[in-house]
Amino acid sequence: MIRLPGDRQFGHEYSTQELTHLMTSIQAVIYARVSTQDQARHGYSLESQIARSRELLKTKYNIADEFVLAVVEQGEMGDDPNRPALNQALWLVEQGIGNKFVVLHPDRLARDLKLQLFITERIWNAGCDIVFVEMDVDPNNPESLLLYNIQGAIAQYNKAKILANSKRGRRAKVMNGKIPGVRRVYGYSFDKTNDTLVVNEVERDVYLMMVDWLLRGKDGRPMTLTSVARELSLLGIPAPNGDKWYQATVSRIVKNPVYTGTFYYGKTECRQRAGRKEIVKKPVHEWQTVPVPAYIDEKTFDELQERIALLGRRNRGAKPKASYLLKGLARCGRCGAAVVAGAPSRDKQTGEPIYRYYTCSGKGRKIFEVGTGRQVHRCSGRNWRQDVVDDYVWRYVSECLWHAQDALKQIFGQRSEAVRLTELQTRRQRLVAALAEKREERKRWLQLAAKGRIDDSELDEALGPLKRDLADLSAQLRQLEQELASLTAAGRPERVEAAIASFRRFLHDGIAESEKKQLVDALIRKVVLRDDVIEIYTAWSGVVPSASRSKNANAGQGDGGL
C-alpha cells in the first residue's frame, strides 16, 4: 500500500511517469481524517481508519494492499472545503487513478451537508465509486441517497449542537462564579476543585515588583518592558512558560486587567466558517465576570496602562539625529494627530541643517473619499520650530519646579516610609538569593574543570557571563544597602528638603539634553501645538504656578518663530 501525507502539493509535483504508474497500478484510494492537532500528533484513529478500509477492500472487492493508495488528513475540520489531503485525493481520482474512493464513515468526508453533496458529485463525475466502511450508498437507489443526505444533515446538526452545548455549559459555570478552564494566568494558580483562580504568593510578589518598576523605576532609572524582562532574567525568577522572559510576556502580563480582581470571560468568540476558526471580539456588555483575588486597584491599573502607552509612543520610529524634547508627547492642535520630527530647512550651498521642525503626522495621511477620489482629512498648516518650542517648554517646566515647593514634595515623597522600607528589604532578599545561586553555579563549573570534564576554553566561555552577572548583582546590592541605610538613618522631612535643594542646584548649574528629556517625560502628560499657542498639560495636580496658567495648561508663544 502506498501512503501519502496530506501536506504534499497535488498536481505539479507528480511527473508523467509517476501518474502513468499510479493509473495502471492503483485500484482504490483511501481517505482518512482526524479533526484535531492532538489526534494528528498521536495518530488517534488514523491507523484504524486505514486498517478497516483495507480489510473491506480485501474481503468485498478482492483488492490487495499493493493496489491501494491511502491519503491521510491530519488536524483538519470536517466542514473545511480547502483541506490539503482531500483536495489531493480528489485530484488523483479525477486523473483516473483508482475506481474506488474509500472512507470509514460519511462524517470523515464532511460534516456539512452542502459540502458533502459537492464532494460526492466530484467523485461520481470522475467515474469513481464511493465506498463507506460503515454505510452503503447506492447512487441509483433513491432511498439510499435519502438516508445518505439525512446522515449528512445529522452530522452537521450534531457538530452545531455540541458547540452550542459547550458554550451554554461554560456560560452557566461562569454565572455560578466558576471559571470553565483557563490558560496560564501568571500570579495565580488554578484550583481545579473549585474552578477558580487562587493566589500564587511568589508570582504575586513578582507581579507587584514589575508594576512598581514600570511606574516608579528601579534604582533611580526608568524601566521599560524590555528592561523589566532583562532584570527578571538576571534575578533568576522563573518565567511563566519555560526559562526565558520575553518582552512580549511582560507586556501581556501587565496589560491583563485580571489583577484588579475581576476575571473577564467571553471577551471574544470563536466562530467556524468553512472549517476555519475566526476570533471575533464581543461587545463589552456581553462579557461575564468572575471575582478573583485583587493585587492592585483600578487607579493603579489605569496609571500602568498610561505608562505603557507612553513608552510605546516614545520608542516608536527611528531615532532622530537631533534631540527632540517633546518626542512622544506632542499632539497637533489642528487635527489631534501625533506631532513628529519633520524635515529640517537646509543651507542651499552646504546642505547643512539650519532649523529643525516639529510637523503634524496628519499631513502625510492619504485618505480618499469614495466616489469622488477627493483627498480628505489631511492636516494643513505650518510646522513648528523645534528649538523655539523645546526652549519654551523647558523654561516653563524649570519655572514650575523652581517655585512649586508642594509639587516637589509630592514628586519626591509620594510613598510612605514603611512601604518603601518593606519593598527595599524584599528586593534585598531577592538579590542575595540571586547572588548565592550565581556563586553556586560558578562553583559547579570550577568543579567540572577540576575533574577534567571540560577544557579551559569551555570554562572561560561559561564563566564570562557569570562574572558579568555577579558584578551587576553585587553593584545593585551595594546600592540597595546604601539606600536602606539612608532610609533608616534619616527622617523623611529632612530628606525631602535635601532632595529639593539638590534638585534646584541641579537646575541652576546646568543639565544635559538627555536629562532634560527624562524630566520632561516624568512631569509632562502632553503638549498641544497650535498655530500660535502652546498648551502644556502637567502630570501633577493641585499646583498652579500663576493665575494666568489655570487648569494645569499653559498657552503662549504667539508666532515667536514657530
TrEMBL record:
Domain Resolvase/invertase-type recombinase catalytic: 27-177
Cytoplasm keyword on record: no
Residue span(s) of domain Recombinase: 185-317
Keyword Acetylation: no
Source species of the chain: Alicyclobacillus fastidiosus
Active site (catalytic residues): 35
Name of this protein: Recombinase family protein
Coiled coil: 421-490
